[in-house]
Each structure stands twice: as C-alpha cells, then as structure tokens.
C-alpha cells in the first residue's frame, strides 16, 4: 500500500517546484507516493495566489 504524501509535503513540493529547487529525492517521493490530483490542485491554488499578489502589488504601485 502506498504511504502517500501529507498536506505540508505537497505544499513544500509545489513551492520548491515553482522556484525550480526541488530535490531529486523529494521529486521521486512525489512521483512514487503522491496523488497527481493533489499536486494539480496545489499548483492551481499557488498560481492563483501568485497572480493575486502581483495584481495587488501593481494596484498599490499605480495608486
């Protein structure tokens, strides 16, 4: 039975992958034990948060 990855492991892996600093060990763990849907959802949420932050910064700078 697969162990899976926990909530914080998914978040950490998503952020590390976004910055391009994911370790080989963690990447292998994610591919072997993680569920793709968890990483897709985490990636979409992280992307939406990033876009929101950029829009907020632009709005603050232009005001």
Element layout with pairings:
Layout: H1 7-19, H2 24-33, H3 36-62
**Domain tally:** 1
Characterize the overall form. Answer: elongated
N-to-C SSE series? HHH
Distance between the termini: 55 Å
What structural class do the secondary elements suggest? mainly alpha
Q: How does the major sheet shape up?
A: none
List low-pLDDT spans: none
Strand content: under 5%
What do you see in this structure?
The protein has 63 residues and is mostly helical. The protein has one domain (7-62). The chain is built from three helices and no strands. Helix 1 (7-19) packs across helix 3. The model has no long low-confidence stretch (mean pLDDT 91).
In short:
With 63 residues, the chain is mostly helical.
Note the main attributes of this structure:
63 residues, elongated
């Amino acid at each position: 039975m697969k162990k899976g990855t926990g909530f914080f492991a998914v978040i950490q892996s998503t952020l590390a992958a976004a910055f391009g600093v994911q370790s080989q060990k963690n990447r292998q763990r994610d591919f072997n034990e993680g569920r793709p849907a968890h990483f897709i959802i985490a990636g979409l949420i992280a992307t939406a948060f990033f876009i929101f932050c950029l829009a907020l910064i632009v709005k603050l700078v232009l005001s």
